[in-house]
User: Fold this.
Amino acid sequence: MNKREVHMVQLLSIVLCSLSITFSSSGCSSKSKGDNGDTGPAPTISINDVTLFEGNSGNTDFEFLVTLDKKSTRDVTVNYSIVSVSAKAGEDYIVPASLSLTFPAGETQKKLIIPVVGDDIKEGDDAFTVQLQNPVNGSLLKLVGSGTIRNDDTRVAYTNTGYDAPASYPGYTLKWADEFNGPSLDASTWGHQNGDGCPGICGWGNNELEFYTDRPENLYFQNGKMIIEAKPESYQGKNYTSSKILTQGKRPIKFGRIDIRAILPKGKGIWPAFWLMPEKSVFGGWPRSGEIDLMEVVGHEPGKTYGTLHFGPGPGSTQISRNFSLPSQTFNDEFHVFSLEWKEDQIKWLVDGNVFSTVNKADLGSNNYPFNEEFFLIVNLAVGGNWPGNPDATTYFPQWLIVDYIRVYQ
Ligand SMILES: [Ca+2]
Ligand SMILES: [Ca+2]
Ligand SMILES: [Ca+2]
Assistant:
């Protein structure tokens, strides 16, 4: 209640009391004769739902209306609590000092104000609920009010620190690079692979949940970074959208060094990947012509990256997979550089310049070694799937794969 409202209530009380009408709001010093004269059931109490944009600074007042279905001759009071759904108390909204409302007798509507904290950082829509409880002289009808804080921002926040690779290496020359400094994807390097894999390999062969698009909602640029955003939305029969880009047919890679500087998303059911597939299926369909996974992280293990080769006679994959874990951080905390050093009959995986796996041709045993051929690069952010499992209530959306650069040396 603001000062003016307080004043109005006091004024109303004085007027009502002085007229000896049957009200007993605060301010009346003696009981009115109608106090115990109510007949029929007590009024019901309901709260509405509120949806508003967050705002960019200060607080935005979420004004819930709590209403009685009829006037009462008695004061009606109700307590309430605020329950976080995805919004965080103190960070996204402010819990009022008083968690109680009083309807002076005769009044049927009160405002319940929850201040929401504005900022200029992109988030998902956040939610909290206001839950009415412990009514006195009334009964609860609609006791839960939903508060939906709509995102109104476009700037993705991230920590701009972390490992940065050297710009050159002895014995290598830069073959091509994308520093992602432009406003759009360089079509001479990249194409999109859209959809959900259907009808050929629905869910991309892994029961993934996303539909890939080339819309700016799912892939965009900010301060020299490419951002792939996975977001929950109903789209083309799927419940999540994201993006997948590939250099197929445009930038064939055979041997050399690949450096990718990125901040990875995290959370259950989130699956970012940098990987390579053969330009030509020289030895036949997957997995016979090989697959090189430069980086795969499953979001419930956000500090652990996997480097994997898939090969073998099929139809299932034979594979060699090794992983590297950060000592304490996650790959979501700041930038890291994921690299491949690839030469004839040997592939090495690196994080921040340190080798964590080396596979030689001999390690494939009697299997055909398909990795001395041209491959193309794929960058994608999957949601759900057999390996990471599906997102759960702990998974925050949207999720961002933030790539600073991709550099290919030979
Ligand atoms: Ca805002
Ligand atoms: Ca915001
Ligand atoms: Ca960049």
User: Anything to note?
Assistant: The chain has two domains: 39-150, 174-409. The pocket of calcium ion (ligand 3) is lined by residues 179-181, 224-225, 404-405 (CB under 6 Å). The longest helix spans residues 3-18. The radius of gyration is 30 Å.
